[in-house]
Amino acid sequence: LNPVYACLPVTVFERMSQLARAHHALNLGQGFPDDAGPEPVRRKAAEAVLDGWNQYPPMMGLPELRAAASRHYARWQGVSLDPEREVMVTSGATEAIAASIFALVEPGDEVVMFEPIYDAYLPLVLRAGATPRFVKLTPPDWRLDEQAIRAAVGPKTKAVLFNNPLNPTGAVFAREDLETLARALAGSDAIVVADEVWEHVIFDGRAHISALSVQSLADRTIKIGSAGKIFSMTGWKVGLVCARPELLTVVAKAHQFLTFTTPPSLQTAVAYGLDTQDDWIRGMRASLQAKRDRFSAGLRSAGLEPLASGGTYFVNADLAPIGVDDDVALCEALVGEGGLAAIPVSAFYAEDPVKTVVRFCFAKDDATLDEALRRLSRFL
Ligand code: GLN
C-alpha cells in the first residue's frame, strides 16, 4: 500500500492548502469555488438563523428538506423517492460516506474501490477493519470494465464505492457504465455506495445518470449528494442520502452516532434552494464549463496536455510532454517556487500510483485562472 495510507494520513487537500497559505500561493489545489452561491439561498439561511429554531432538528433531517430533495431528484434524475423513508440528511457527503461504510462493513469484509480513489474512502475502509480491493481505471476514458470488476468482487464483498462523476479525473459515467457495474455485481450482495456529489457539476449538455435510476442497481444503491456542491458553497456540509428504506435505516443508525443531525438553518435554506434554483444550477454549469475551457486552453499554451473533464471542478494535466515523472515533487516546487498550488494525482492511488498527472481546480474567477496560468508558464 501507498505509505500515505499506513495510518490516518493528513489529507492531500489540507497539506496543499497549508503549503499554499505558507507560500502565499494561488490555491488551485483543494476544490472549492470562488462563487458565493445563490443569494436567495444564503438569505434564507440567515433568516433561519435569526428567526428560526436553532435546536437539534430531527435525526433524519428536516421533513421539508427531505421532501424538497425527493422533488428535486424526481425532476432532474427521474428517481422516485419516498421522502419519509428513503431520504436522510447528513452533515456533508463525507459523513454520509463514513456512515455508509460503518453501517455496512465488519472487520474482515471486503470493499471494492476504483482507482483513482477519492481521498476519504480508503482511510475510512481501513479504519472500519475491512480489506480494500481495487479496480484500476485507465485514461483517457476511465471506463468500467466488467471483467475487472468481477475479478475484484467476491463472497466477502460488502460494498462498492463508486464516485460518478469521478474526482479527481472528471470522468462522467454513462448509463452503459452503470449497467456494466450492475452486470458485474449480479450474484453478489454488495451494496453500491454511489457518491454522486458532482451530479450537477457536469458539462457539455450531459445528463447525470444516478445509480438509483438504473433499475438493476436501485435496490442495492445508497446514493449520496451534497448541497455544498449543488450550490457552490462547499463549507455548508449538508449531505443527502437516498436509499431503499431497509438500507437507509441501517445507515441512519450509524449517522446517529457520528453527527446525529445538521444545522437546521442550513437545512431550511437547502430545501428552499432545491425547489427554486434550477436556473441558477444551469447557469453554474455554463459558467464552470467556460472556465474549464479557458483553463484547458491555457494549460496547452503552457506546454501541458489537459485530459478531458466532463464534470467536477477539476482538469488534470499530463506531465509526460514536459518529461516530468514525479507529480509530488512538481507540486511541492510549484507551490514553493512558482506560487501556485495544485494536487498530485498519485495521492489518489493506493498501489502503483500514476505519477505523471496533476489536478487543477478551475472553479475560480477568470483573473485568478489567468494569473495561475502566467505563474505556471513562468515556472515551467
Ligand atoms: N472534495 C475536495 C477536493 O476534492 C476536498 C475536500 C476536502 O478538503 N476534504 O478537492
Automatic annotation (TrEMBL):
GO terms for molecular function: transaminase activity. The keyword Transferase applies. Keywords: Aminotransferase, Pyridoxal phosphate, Transferase. Pfam families: Aminotran_1_2. Its cofactor is pyridoxal 5'-phosphate. Residues 25-376 form the Aminotransferase class I/classII large domain. InterPro entries: Aminotransferase_I/II_large (IPR004839), Kynurenine-oxoglutarate_AT (IPR051326), PyrdxlP-dep_Trfase (IPR015424), PyrdxlP-dep_Trfase_major (IPR015421), PyrdxlP-dep_Trfase_small (IPR015422). This is Aminotransferase. The lineage of its organism: Bacteria, Pseudomonadati, Pseudomonadota, Alphaproteobacteria, Hyphomicrobiales.
